[in-house]
Specification:
The chain is mainly α. The chain is built from 15 helices and six strands.
Length: 440
């Protein structure tokens, strides 16, 4: 099923509200009192909205297979919860939930019981609730429905900015968000003070652990090193360099693997310029961000995390390219234990092995090498990498778009389309992407 942006935004608000209701009921049962457990002040829990929308978009092809649908929803919900938890702690030093006391948990962000709940919620939503909500949305009058949705978006944006400014003022961590709070101050000092005070009171009541704590001596030393060393820790610059390195090495690895198993050299690049595999680059960068704090854990934990995360990531990439470009870049239908031809058990194990080798062997060496780069030169090179890859991805997307249009018999409509047809004819595109298939 193909959803419009209008429908997806409505569904995001609906499931965010239902998620907030679940959280309030759970907190009321545990604490015997009403507590607004959401990060925002309004009656929304965005993590539920995003999770359900992701499930609807990426798991729709599994609607007829109960077990695989449950497994897919479980993975998507768990990964979304993990990413949300990591983002909140990275940006705000804030934890809205903590599963540390439960069995089979990872860093307190996710646990087995919560994952099972995500799987069950996904089944209920996709099988029963979503058809009902979708029918209601499609019956809404066009103009009033759009006007109401715009109002909800504006309220959501204002709530997000207000809550973020209040939390950052409590934590006193980020100059960027302090500027937001200062903006409130300039607009109206009394109103800004009232808003911040109300939000702080609500946040302290819902999350007592928000009370500011003085940094330890080790944390102070880490902050000093972070200012003097280029790309220290798991910073933006290091992740960018790792993405670039992972994209190149991933393409090289796949090319050699195809040569050994298939007896011929085959392009495995994701872009039109250079041997770079975006799937591998984003996968390695994402694995570094997610597994960085667990790099010293036992091998089996890294392997299991890499297997699950890699499988979910490859599945999502497959669905995205099919929806965005109408193309399929890989098909595992002929390999046993596959899921819709998008992933298979053997290659999921490869992701686990790759995560283990990367975090235990390659990353420590790459990290030390990157940190030795002079700070100014490193930042200049980061800018060049960012500009080159952005341009490469942009041109690749446009070229694939024109390839799809040519396959549908759509002629070039402007000068840019003529240039794309001239520089990237079908023969060149099929040489760069030899396994690509068009969908109906």
């Amino acid at each position: 099923m193909i959803y419009t942006a209008y429908e997806l935004i409505w569904l995001f608000f609906i499931y965010s509200f239902l998620g907030w209701c679940l959280e309030v009921v759970y907190a009321a049962a545990a604490q015997k009192t009403f507590v607004n457990r959401g990060f925002l002040n309004g009656i929304l829990c965005p993590v539920y909205g995003f999770s359900m929308v992701f499930m609807l978009v990426f798991m729709d092809t599994l609607r007829g297979e109960w077990f695989y649908l449950f497994l897919g929803c479980l993975i998507v919900g768990t990964v979304t919860e993990l990413l949300t938890g990591l983002m909140l702690e990275k940006m705000f030093h804030l934890r809205l939930w903590d599963y540390s006391g439960k069995k089979f948990q990872a860093g307190g962000y996710i646990c087995w019981s919560a994952s099972l709940v995500w799987g069950l919620l996904g089944i209920v939503v996709m099988k029963f609730l979503n058809p009902l909500f979708l029918a209601i949305i499609r019956e809404l009058p066009g103009l009033p429905g759009m006007a109401l949705l715009i109002c909800l978006l504006l309220i959501f944006a204002a709530d997000t900015v207000t809550t973020t400014a209040a939390v950052m003022k409590m934590k006193n961590q980020s100059p960027a968000f302090q500027e937001i709070a200062e903006g409130f101050h300039q607009a109206s000092k009394s109103l800004q003070g009232f808003i911040i005070k109300v939000v702080q009171r609500r946040m302290y009541r819902a999350f007592p652990k928000l009370k500011k704590e003085e940094p330890t001596e080790q944390e102070r030393q880490e902050m000093i090193r972070q200012k003097t060393i280029f790309a220290y820790g798991c910073s933006f610059h290091k992740v960018l360099w790792i993405f670039f390195l992972g994209a190149f090495l991933g393409d090289l690895t796949e090319t050699v693997f195809c040569r050994i198993t298939m007896g011929r050299w085959m392009s495995r690049s994701s872009v039109v310029y250079g041997p770079f595999s975006l799937v591998w680059g984003l996968g390695v960068a994402g694995a570094t961000i997610l597994l960085y704090r667990y790099r010293d854990r036992e091998d089996r934990y890294i392997f299991l995390a890499g297997t699950l995360l890699g499988g979910a990531y490859e599945y999502i990439c497959s669905v995205f390219t099919e929806l965005a470009f109408g193309t399929i870049f890989w098909d595992y239908s002929g390999i046993p234990f596959n899921l819709g031809g998008r992933i298979n058990l053997l290659y999921c194990f490869f992701w686990g092995i790759a995560a283990l080798v990367w975090m235990k062997i390659c990353y420590p060496r790459a990290s030390k090498w990157i940190e030795k780069v002079p700070k100014k030169a490193g930042k200049c090179m980061s800018c060049l990498i960012l500009i080159f890859m952005f341009w490469n991805v942009l041109i690749s997307g446009l070229a694939l778009g024109r390839y799809s249009e040519r396959a549908m018999g759509i002629p070039a409509q402007n000068e840019a389309a003529h240039k794309l047809d001239e520089h990237f004819p079908d023969e060149r595109i099929e040489q760069i992407y030899p396994n690509m298939k068009m969908t109906e």
